[in-house]
Prior knowledge:
By secondary structure, this protein is mainly beta. Helix content is 13%, strand content 50%. The protein has five helices and 13 strands. The chain has helices spanning 7-13, 15-19, 165-172, 176-182, 222-225; strands at 24-33, 43-53, 57-60, 63-70, 74-83, 106-117, 120-129, 137-144, 147-148, 152-163, 192-204, 209-219, 234-245. It has a twelve-stranded antiparallel β-barrel. A hairpin with a 2-residue loop joins strand 3 and strand 4 (63-70). The radius of gyration is 18 Å and the shape is globular. It is found in: Cell outer membrane. InterPro entries: MipA (IPR010583). Keywords: Cell outer membrane, Membrane, Signal. Residues 1-21 form the signal peptide. Belongs to the MipA/OmpV family.
Amino acid sequence: MIIKKNLLITAALFFASSAMAGEFSLGAGAVYNESPYKGYNENTSAVPIISYEGDNFYVRQTTAGWAFWKDSKNELSLTASWMPLHFDPDDNDDHAMKQLDERKASAFLGGAYYRHERWGSLKFGVAADAMDESGGVVGEMTYFHPFRMERLTLIPAVGVFYYDESFNDYYYGVSGKESRHSGLNEYTAGDSWNPYVALTAKYQLTQNIFLNASAMYTVLPDDVKNSPMIDREDSFVLMTGMSWRF
């Protein structure tokens, strides 16, 4: 399996649904991911759904944070996130792609700022690769606005992710050595801005049981889709699951 969940899932697809959970919720779900890499069909994987919202500490899916400044409209946090984007050549069906090196998942450390207003919320985040797999830096700017009904909450979101040259080149570049082994063209990726739209839905079945669903569509920038490793111009991710609020 090449991408259990890509970076777009961990950074945006779950943050809204996690933030509106109770003090602690736990569940399980499935992610359907159309991989942009050549040699992969759409794949589905099981994922946990975890959230904890304390006075200062929180866990929102694969991100843990400590809010050192928070009031009714602002939240400024230090964050630690697991970014499971990876590439495993052994799982690929394309002969040329099988000759490439593995790209590993990594942990990122950084910070996030939320601004909450009546018209919606803004999120600004930045983080750096703490395990030095890519040595990259990622950023995020997102607008989201919850619409709460009796049992159903919908959260549309629109935003953009920034990936620096080191991040993109690690996951999408092809080195000279890899080019000679695989026959793929040598490629060096630059930094990029990835726009996306997303929709999260949360339905309360009982006092404690919730159904969760999230979908995200992302347009791949030129520095990603021009890579010889890529055969798509966009990316789509869908998550469904169930969680229990304690």
